[in-house]
Write a structure and sequence with these properties.
The protein is an alpha+beta fold. It is built from three helices and nine strands, in the order βαβαβββαββββ. Strand 8 and strand 9 form a beta hairpin. It is globular. The N and C termini lie far apart (about 40 Å).
Length: about 150
């Protein structure tokens, strides 16, 4: 059925550093890792100068292949934003454990918010973890029931 959302792509400075969050904390697995060819489409869609070598990794979630892509643009080409230009949103089984693991690995996290009786949607807890490039990964847990 269409439309079908295939994946989000994030520009990062260092794929191995970013994998510490997306793989080691959030549980994605690396499907493919490699260097982009000089005619890769990412140069066009992200307006990356062609003289800058890029690498990419596609990541799978347990239920979907190639859910997320990381495109490495090394050096100082990437801008630093005071306002985050993009975020991922990931459902996790245990919000507290996920935030603890992220903190253990040195990631910046926000205080969780608990919505036990929301006007819309299920009861949930949510927080953000910031990757090495400042992209927030909003993580949330669906709560079994409101107290």
């Amino acid at each position: 059925m269409l439309p079908w959302f295939q994946r989000a792509c994030l520009l990062v400075r260092d794929i191995p550093a970013s994998l510490r969050l997306y793989r080691d904390v959030l549980g994605f697995s690396v499907s493919h890792f490699g260097e982009d060819s000089p005619d890769a489409y990412s140069y066009d869609i992200f307006n990356i100068p062609r003289d800058i070598p890029t690498r990419f990794a596609t990541l799978d979630s347990p239920e979907q292949e190639r859910t997320l892509a990381l495109i490495e643009v090394p050096g100082t080409v990437l801008q630093t934003f005071s306002i985050a230009p993009a975020a991922t949103v990931v459902r996790v089984a245990d919000l507290a454990a996920t935030l603890n693991r992220a903190t253990e690995l040195g990631f910046s996290v926000t205080e969780p918010r608990w919505h036990r009786d929301p006007e819309r949607g299920p009861a949930r807890g949510e927080a953000a973890i910031y990757d090495p490039d400042g992209h927030p990964a909003v993580v949330y847990e669906i709560l079994d029931s409101a107290p």
